[in-house]
């Protein structure tokens, strides 16, 4: 037992972290990412691989579905979670999470997480963290599965019911399904079994025509809000037939109010409000915003090496590195990405958005300029990065008219990201899953912009 | 040793076959069938027909994996939440299987098997190749072409999109009009 | 020249494979933190998703490393392999096909959409790479006029097959990456599906599955040495050293390739594989057949 504890301590000294970002928490995300890079802790791609869940910002629930809680339930023990509500506290919170894990590893042995078949419990309250507290942790190994409390999991066709197929990465309760044949009708023709509805509280696929006119199964899978390299707060509800997205609708989980302006468009918003902003501040923010998008796009495209470089460069730009330092590194990066013919081969023709179509949706910014596919949009980003670097030491004041942020025209009532979100369903229909991810990453809407601003007062945070 | 391996594989093969009827999950049924077929491949290896045995393992694994593609088409609920069997008319199928099994076993036990004359060849694979491709070359080549032609014809008949749909009525389009772009651009 | 190793080699084989895989993974991660990562998975609890088919997941995760080790049975170190089967090449191919079943079962079992997508992505990948792959290894067998791996090594005493069958060698390297769903072919466990077939695995299950993938990658890379690079043939050094050196070189090349290339999506690759690579591989086989007939 002692040896096991000691091994556990060594193992959890550098925990794998799943970073879940809420809309409006870009500052916190950047702080946590930088801290993780500094500590060289591994990143988990989903709850199954995570030891420590770091929530950046307060996750907004989707309707009455508390996806963040279900995601937490899907993390195998030993586990801990921290909430980062302030970028300054990122390092402190992560350290706290690590300590909680180490303490937890000291007091527990390994235990199989297993529930008797069909047994349901409603015990999520037992270890709810106090909400006002900065970070809470649980290293215990209780069976905290089966949060089938909401009505959402029992009505087969309501859109909330489809959460549990795991696309959102939250529907991963523990449980055991005995294949006992307790369901009637196993002797029938197997086509007779498609009736939608729900089994074990899980929604079933229904049937619809596919693109070749065959009548085949169609599964409802929500993408987001906790996928890796995914815009924070975005949920795309897809109907999947095999790998093909047959229909998609978009939902934005934004906090009801936000006291801070969206991070990536902050300089322009301030300028629009009449505050003095210099060109170099805006240029740095644009450069970093595009580097963030490029890093995300390359990560979704599966090119990890330059994606990491882009993210490092983003942190340098925001950290105030000198223009000379930035220029050489960024030139190398943009040249490397431009020269890759495999990237071009793999991403051209994905998510074509012509400028006429873009104008119809009111899209401005890089997506309109690109007038083409995902690869064209990437090229526009790279070009704007190269241009923005040159303006990074220009101290002159920013002209306060015709403001164009990283994602398009700055208009507090109709933010540019709103148009990008609106155009998503059209572009996603008929794409294959991997292409759909690329399309979303190539538009990279920033849902921080969608949170209603200046609505101060109201009720306090929960 | 060989006898023991033979019997273990034989029992496993039969058990796998029976389980195809017992499971109500598509994936389990498919893979118990695969288990049975892998055991048959093992039997062939035990009997000294290595090439045939290994090829059986290879072909059957890939075949069952391809079955999974159809599984997804007809049923996207993973883990077989919706119980369904892979056999229609379960009772009839089971009766047929048992009858065939009993007949074959009876045949094996009752047939007057000839004694072995000569010795097993050193390299049965070469002999197999010679037997198939030597005197029967023309037959095998015709058979191969016929099978291939059947596959192509089936696909041509099944697809709704020919070159006119892809390249336009005058076949002038530079890029085919496909739902998803391919990797070569033709 | 080929000889069969003593019985204890069967026990040593998995250990040796794990060691090579460990070294390769450490180099790939550019750190020595691999032990901690493995330990992390060992202390982590296993995890069950709701309504999962646990049996199939367990079979799938266990089958992957088992298939890799079984495939390595015909792999010669120097001139010795655990068993130099008369149909070694077909054996290797059959064991590598078992990985299809393993990944598919692992993807299907947890009852999760992302995991399912990962599982059938590997089937699409298999269908894409297998045709040119089979032609490539058939070409090598044709050059040696034998399906025995030992005979292949002997036939390359003069000239390596990689030199006069470059297309088959190139195709084999591509399919080595694809069969281990590694590097640019990691779509079945890609980050865009949050880990794909491995997305719902935790603890020992995850260790078996991802470790099995590393084993498969090492075996696939190492098999290119007897197939195309002359096995243990080489001057000065002992045969086993040549095998190790060549294997390390192939592994290094493949790991370098991953840093250069984004993930290859199958809807693009399948057309390339069937329309370009397959005819090229057939042409290569034809050339080799003519050469073999003429000698």
From TrEMBL, chain A:
This protein's source sits in the domain of life called: Bacteria
* Bias type Basic and acidic residues, positions: 111-167
Q: Where is this region: Disordered?
A: 106-197
Q: Which InterPro entries does the record cross-reference, listed alphabetically?
A: NiFe-Hase_large
The name this protein goes by in its record: Uncharacterized protein
- Organism equals Streptomyces nymphaeiformis
Automatic annotation (TrEMBL), chain B:
Question: Where mainly found?
Answer: membrane
**Cellular compartments per GO CC:** plasma membrane
Reaction catalysed by this enzyme: a quinone + NADH + 5 H(+)(in) = a quinol + NAD(+) + 4 H(+)(out)
Q: Name one GO molecular function term.
A: quinone binding
Give the location in the cell. Cell membrane
Ranges that cross the membrane = 6-23, 30-49, 55-81, 93-113, 133-158
Q: Which Pfam families match?
A: Oxidored_q3
Swiss-Prot/TrEMBL keywords? Cell membrane, Membrane, NAD, Quinone, Transmembrane, Transmembrane helix, Ubiquinone
EC number(s) from the headed UniProt entry: 7.1.1.-
Q: Could you tell me the superkingdom of the organism this chain comes from?
A: Bacteria
InterPro entries cross-referenced by the UniProt entry: NADH_UbQ/plastoQ_OxRdtase_su6 (IPR001457), Nuo/plastoQ_OxRdtase_6_NuoJ (IPR042106)
Bilayer topology: Multi-pass membrane protein
Question: How would you classify this enzyme at the top EC level?
Answer: translocase
Q: What does this protein do?
A: NDH-1 shuttles electrons from NADH, via FMN and iron-sulfur (Fe-S) centers, to quinones in the respiratory chain. Couples the redox reaction to proton translocation (for every two electrons transferred, four hydrogen ions are translocated across the cytoplasmic membrane), and thus conserves the redox energy in a proton gradient.
Which family is this protein grouped under?
Answer: Belongs to the complex I subunit 6 family.
Q: What is this protein called?
A: NADH-quinone oxidoreductase subunit J
Q: State the species of origin.
A: Streptomyces nymphaeiformis
Please name the taxonomic classification of the source: Bacteria, Bacillati, Actinomycetota, Actinomycetes, Kitasatosporales
TrEMBL record, chain C:
Keywords associated with the record: Membrane, NAD, Transmembrane, Transmembrane helix
Q: What is its main location?
A: membrane
User: In its keyword annotation, does this UniProt entry include Oxidoreductase?
Assistant: no
Manganese among the record's keywords?
Answer: no
Q: Where in the cell is it found?
A: Cell membrane; Membrane
Residue ranges annotated as transmembrane are 6-27, 55-77, 97-123, 159-182, 214-233, 239-257, 269-293
Q: Name one GO biological process term.
A: aerobic respiration
Give the source's domain of life in one word. Bacteria
Please name the GO terms that the record assigns under molecular function: NADH dehydrogenase activity
Q: Which GO terms describe its cellular component?
A: plasma membrane
Q: How does it sit in the membrane?
A: Multi-pass membrane protein
Q: Which family does it belong to?
A: Belongs to the complex I subunit 1 family.
Q: What is this protein called?
A: NADH-quinone oxidoreductase subunit H
Which species does the entry assign this protein to? Streptomyces nymphaeiformis
